[in-house]
Amino acid sequence: MDIINTIGRRKTAVARIYLQPGNGSINVNGKDYKEYFPVETLRYVVTQPLDLTNNLDKFEIKANLKGGGIKGQAEAIRLAIARALAKSNNELRPTLKEKGLLSRDPRMVERKKPGLRKARKRDQFSKR
């Protein structure tokens, strides 16, 4: 098996990953993922597809991240890893699909409209 290249997106974050057989290391922008994501819940989000398919120490992953915040980046990596695992072994696809890891979350920040304070927030109405 050669290197599998996939992409994952969430909000404005974009993750490109390269998955290959290896020792289980995950590098994000040249750093270990535990160093890049200091919060334990975000580390869990990143390794969730590997945990579900029992592949935690079978693949080496290199990820390039751009844009978004730290949570969006973690969820973008999760989608990219899930897609790569499904591409590498078609038998893992039903397990990942059942947990909803193969679908992109389409929610984005709504744009600010003119005359309003935020996307929907208005000035308080005064009758008099």
Q: Can you tell me about this structure?
A:
- The chain has a single domain (4-98), classed as Ribosomal Protein S5, domain 2 (2-Layer Sandwich), CATH 3.30.230.10.
- 33% of the residues lie in helices and 23% in strands.
- The protein is built from four helices and five strands; from the N terminus they run ββββααβαα.
- It has a five-stranded mixed β-sheet with strand order 1-2-5-3-4.
- A hairpin with a 2-residue loop joins strand 1 and strand 2.
- Helix 2 runs parallel beside helix 3.
- The longest helix has 19 residues, at 70-88.
- It is elongated and about 70 Å long.
- The model has no long low-confidence stretch (mean pLDDT 94).
Q: Which CATH class applies here?
A: Alpha Beta
Mean pLDDT: 94
Domain tally: 1
Mind telling me which CATH architecture this is?
Answer: 2-Layer Sandwich
| Coarse morphology | elongated
Helix-strand sequence = EEEEHHEHH
Q: Estimate what percentage of residues fall within beta strands.
A: 15-25%
How are the strands of the biggest sheet laid out side by side? 1-2-5-3-4
CATH fold naming: Ribosomal Protein S5, domain 2
Distance between the termini: 73 Å
- Unreliable runs, pLDDT <50, ≥5 residues? none
Oligomer state equals single chain
Main sheet, how many strands, which sense, barrel?
5 strands, mixed
Helix/strand class: alpha+beta
C-alpha-based Rg, rounded: 18 Å
